[in-house]
Amino acid sequence: MSKKMLATVALAGAAALVLAGCSSDSSGGGEATGEPIVVAANSSLTFFPEAPQAVQAVFDEYNAAGGLNGRPLQYNVCDDKVDPAASAQCQKDALSAGAVAMVGSSSLLDCAVNWKTWVDSDMVSLQGTGVDPYCFGTSNVAPANTGPFFDAQATIQQAADDGGKAICVLATTADPSTKQAYEEMIVNWEAFSGEKFAAVDTSAGYGADYSSNISGLTSSASCDSFVFLGVGPDILGMINVLTQQGIKAPVYVQTSCYYPEFAASAASYGGTISVPAEFSPLDDASNDEFKALMDSAGVPQSSFAQGGYLAAKNFIQILESIEGDTVDAASVTAAAKGMTTPDENPMRGNSWIFGEGESHQANASAWNLTAAPGSGVWTSNGPWVGAKEIGFKPLAVAK
Question: What gap in Å lies between CA 51 and CA 279, rounded to an integer?
């Protein structure tokens, strides 16, 4: 993978000044024109473009309403290309630019690469799409989303609740810590449920041909359901393999697959596909403000966009709670860790708070949806399930 250091870029057709929702502390008198407050993000844009685009849209709205006492939010987004060296350089660029926080980052490896830098720099990251285990196991990070490990366990529990007795799992992993976290989660679920998986494969990479992986699962077990863990394009590849092999067993996937185009692309599959949404279903009324803003900004509606939107809103809540006139990384971090009033946005199934702590699983709820064979659309089922219902335990990470 390329080690080329990547320049910081601005997203979604805005200039360097970028914008966010109305507030009681904004100047309220036209577009913000004061000294910019720099905010940054490190993202794997090939996989998660919508999250920082959604942040951009929120910041655009905020700046147009006056920003923070006339100061606009300047949003610098860097594409890490899923390259650890590039991710580290992205973070150095953010620090050099004077960023006060990381907001809406959506990366396959950002937290694993940069978490210690955030601690050492007294900076917080409000991930739009937290992915690797360090996003949920360190003190200075609180993602908007549930993350792939809570999400994976909710996916598996749904397969069991639907009657799966021979569940086969195929997971894509980008790095050793993610592989270890998936394997830890699998052990935790077996202990919680008292059940054993029929077969498990955590060796798959991103963008691979999954024919041999699936053949390996089916040759070692009579799988009555499949749990596929990974991002949407890869999961579609796995489902295509099932179709080619004439398999029609139920498939359970992660929130990364919860977007309209995925359901449409998988319509030819002969079995039911289920997903646990990290946020409320896109067609639910709780998303009306989100959808209106995304439509006006031309941002595709997806769970990634929901995460970016909520991360931006939570950042503004924290920003406006700062006492005094100094807005820097230290004051934002103090406000985030001192947060006592949770966000009760109905787009989540639980209240969200940053606060103190050595780890943050701030979003811990999921909502089930299904796509029937041939339908090409997601159907909302519910209800919300939390950590207790799925037996989720916080993941341990090496520090």
Answer: 13
| pLDDT tens-digit series, residues 280-325 | 999 999 999 999 999 999 999 999 999 999 999 999 999 999 999 9
CA angle 175, 104, 205 (to 5 degrees): 20
Instruction: Specify the residue for token string 């109905």.
Output: 346
Nearest to 307 by CA among 12, 110, 58: 58
Q: Which of 93, 118, 98, 110 is nearest to 47 (CA)?
A: 110
User: Rounded to whole angstroms, how far apart are CA atoms 359 and 131?
Assistant: 14
Amino acid identity at 388: K
* Helix and strand counts by DSSP (H, E) for the chain: 12, 13
In this prediction, residue 29 has a pLDDT band, given cuts at 50, 70 and 90, of low
Kindly report the pTM of this predicted structure: 0.86
Tokens, residue 95: 């620090």
Is the pLDDT at 103 greater than 90? The verdict is yes
**8 A C-beta contact, residue 143 and residue 307:** yes
CA distances to 211, 226, 243, 250, 374 from 271, rounded to whole Å, are: 18, 11, 9, 5, 9
